[in-house]
Amino acid sequence: MINLIFIHGVNQQVTGYSREFYNLILKNYKGILKKKGCEQKEIEEKASQLVQKELLWADVTTDLTNRYLTVEFGPKKKSFLCNLIAPGIDPIVIQILYYVKDKGDKDSGVMNILGRVDNKFKEYQKDGMKECIIVAHSLGSVIAFDYVFGFRKYKLDSSVAVKAFITMGSPIPIFTSSMGHIESDLKLPSNINQWINILDKDDAVARYCVPFFKNIDIREIEVNTGMNPIKSHGFYWQSKPTAKKIAEIISEING
Length: 255
Fold this sequence. Notes:
This protein has 9 helices and 6 strands. It has 255 residues and is α/β, with parallel strands linked by helices. The chain has a single domain, classed as Rossmann fold (3-Layer(aba) Sandwich), CATH 3.40.50. The two termini are 13 Å apart. The model has no long low-confidence stretch (mean pLDDT 92).
């Protein structure tokens, strides 16, 4: 069994947010196997080896962002344009800054977001997970990066083999550069087989990662999710070309 673990970016998500994308990946994967000449029984057997799992973390910041919007858009109103833009932009900025400053609960010391991630991965291990593919988007890719590389309080158990660490629309270089490491000396942890960074050139948030990590052989894949620099950032989840690329990666790993 290979666990395909999805980690979303900013904004609130609900259970099942990755289902449509997973189904697109699965459809493409089956198509690849068919082109290879696999019989239908073998195709279904290989497809059944993929187990979809998804992480939800943004609910940690829901009360915070909702309260902010209540206070910000109280009796005094700003311009029409500000009232149009801020409700979409402000919660995103708050979530990013919250994650950056998250030092843990005052009483328990448990980090709210990475603690959630760590608990879920431990649950997966208890269920028998020994290997996985991580697909992480936007701020979720930063969270996953911190977790698999062990930069903060929690780190993925080294006994779990990450067959592919896949980032989509990732701003990781912005975060590592802001920590003073523009050209990083990092090496890939021994339990991570490969890092694949998927991005749309029109995505205003996504960054190429290769120039920033000279000791890691990152594979960068360009896709087209749309020409709008803002909308294209969120459209990886609906993107057929992205699903196809991930299916090809799975095919390389699982035959």
